[in-house]
Amino acid sequence: MSELPALPVTFRPGRTRAVLLTAGVAIFVVITAVALLLEKLGPGERLSFVLTGALMFGVLAMLARVKVVADESGVTVVNIATRRRLDWAEILQVNLRPGDPWVFLNLSDGTSLPVLGIQPGIAKQHAIADARALRALAEAHGIKEREDREG
Fold first, then answer.
1. pTM as predicted
2. Per-residue pLDDT for 113 more than 60?
3. Pick from 28, 36, 65, 131: most CB atoms within 10 A?
4. Paired strand residues for 76
């Protein structure tokens, strides 16, 4: 097994995040510039253009916020609109199968949790390395935590 990353560690899709935030800023700037350059628009219409650009930026920023933070006590999964804290013992398996859009965690309660913070979209090899690191952390800490609970 490879060496475990130092904790705390944050996994996030860096390139995807950069693309989303850059696109969000560009969309906001272009829509705002159009609102200011169109002479026939009234103040309310200009404001609606600017608010539409801000809304589009906000949506892209929400998509860019996804991440996974692992520390000594567990994992925090931040997806688009949700945040969930898990103890290491709750994570039974970390999966990233070929064709999966992101990592899935199989949990001790029988459910599966999508982890959008590790996704192979633009940077496939980076996502695979992150998934392996999270799997190694979950195995090392989860086994230790389960043993502590049992013994």
1. 0.84
2. yes
3. 131
4. 69, 85
